[in-house]
Amino acid sequence: MDPISIVLAGGSMLVLGVGAGYVLGWARDALRVESDPRVDEVLAALPGANCGGCGYVGCASYAEAVVLKGEQPDKCPVGGPSVAANVARIMGVSVRPSWPKRPVVHCRAKLEDRLQRTPYYGEPTCAAANLVSGVQGCTYGCLGFGDCVRACAFDAIHIIDGLAVVDYEQCTGCGACARVCPRNIITMVPFKRDRMLVVACSNKDVGKEVKDVCTVGCVGCRACGKRSPLFRFGDGNLPEIDYDAYNPDHLEGVDQAVEKCPMHGLIYVGKPTPRDMAAPGEVPSVVMADFKTTVDNTEWQG
User: Nearest Cα to 107, choosing from 182, 164, 190?
Assistant: First the structure.
């Protein structure tokens, strides 16, 4: 090959290389996005569970939202108050008083408690069974096919005798079980103590109709509301607990309401205390629901 051609080719490659390097250097400076070092600090303070309980796809997204969008520092249900305090310190803000939220299952009917049950041979998921009429007489109760179990990454909820039961020793409060329940009978409750009072039913029908489908359902007698202002009634017959007004150190009339409930549907759930463990019988685990069915989310046409 002609030596001159070789020199020209080499020179051309050198010029192109120098030009490309210059362009890349310019682009690096011109297009560089300044990152706030606090994002990495917040991310390091988070537990790294990436559970989505904060409402973001992962801890990194939440950290960016806290630093760049002013998101509240107490959105991490897994980390709880200690993580919230650390994130608030990094951001130089004060954290508002809050309590960790834990899931409660608004049903305590085991298989033997459910009346008018019919065999179901469809897809063994709650989402599918909820579309079928007559799977069980109570259209408000736990279906027991374990969608919540499969959604939980912490092995904190299990199906026992057809009923979803939360293991509060394992639960981190990520809310995954509540998000997948098609009947919306798992809700997140602020735990102001390790044990919280709950209403263990979600059936809003009148007493006779409840008794026709369940042996342990709330009959709507309203006896609890007569004994404590903590209980209130909405459109249906089912009592609700005002958790904003819930003061674990001063539960006026609650003991009498629990004692007088004819269906024994007012119970305490959460981590069992030494006293609970020493007491005979089982430690109950269940609460009050914002009930809906899959049909409520259906868009009808025609």
Answer: 164
